[in-house]
Design brief:
Largest sheet: 8 strands, mixed
Shape: globular
Structural class: alpha/beta
CATH topology: Rossmann fold
Radius of gyration: 16 Å
Number of strands: 8
Number of domains: 1
Number of helices: 7
Order of helices and strands: EEEHEHHEHEHEHEH
């Protein structure tokens, strides 16, 4: 991974741009969970997968403690994520975008898809917050090609809403038996590694389906 840039975005949302050795037009934006950073296993291997496929990788590295999370105004959060992205790529000429979002990151993702820059972006919804009406409505109605992965033991898994998402044929849906909000199995570390392998394989298939073998 050739070049790292650490720059602060608005409201101290830091970001890190990991660039290929040569200029490319592919960018994946990674939006982590509130307590699940881009360094955690799932997003670490997601980064590696996209990088080996010829993508620059942009990590939006917000982090919140429990108090900050309870005080967080979601409109401020979404605006600051957008500003961090704008700062990171203001001198770039990307034309092919993917966005991978986990948990609270799916709130920001729902807003980003209103941006004309991302009208053709491919999206990966990891443990989406289905109880949030905006997230659910965006997933149900968006035209962007998407992959959704969630565990059936995740507190964000709402079966009735998940079933309704099947009406959006732009979405590929995966439910992981026993998977929790970390896409792991409680008290099963070895089996959790197998589950992680399945998730990364699903993302790899999604990339292949969209022209990135």
């Amino acid at each position: 991974m050739e070049t790292n840039k650490e720059v602060l975005g608005s409201k101290n949302i830091p970001f890190r741009l990991i660039e290929q050795k040569q200029e490319v037009n592919n960018l994946v934006i990674v939006l982590p969970g509130a307590g699940y950073t881009t360094q955690a296993p799932l997003l670490h291997f997601t980064t590696g997968l996209f990088y080996t496929k010829g993508f620059d990788v942009l990590h939006i590295n917000y982090s919140y403690n429990r108090q900050e999370l309870s005080d967080l105004r979601i409109e401020d959060f979404k605006r600051n994520v957008q500003l961090a992205i704008d700062n990171a790529i203001k001198n770039k000429n990307y034309s092919n975008y993917y966005i991978v979002a986990k948990s609270i990151g799916t709130k920001a993702l729902s807003d980003l898809l209103n941006n004309t820059r991302f009208k053709d972006a491919k999206v990966v919804w990891l443990t989406p917050i289905l109880q949030n009406d905006e997230v659910f409505k965006t997933m149900a109605n968006c035209d962007n090609k998407g992959l959704c992965i969630i565990g059936d033991k995740d507190h964000c898994f709402i079966e009735e809403r998940f079933e309704r998402l099947k009406n959006n044929h732009n979405l590929t849906l995966k439910v992981l038996d026993g998977g929790n909000h970390g896409l792991e199995l409680d008290k099963e570390p070895i089996k959790s590694i197998e589950l992680l392998k399945c998730v990364i394989s699903d993302m790899n298939e999604f990339l292949k389906m969209n022209g990135h073998p």
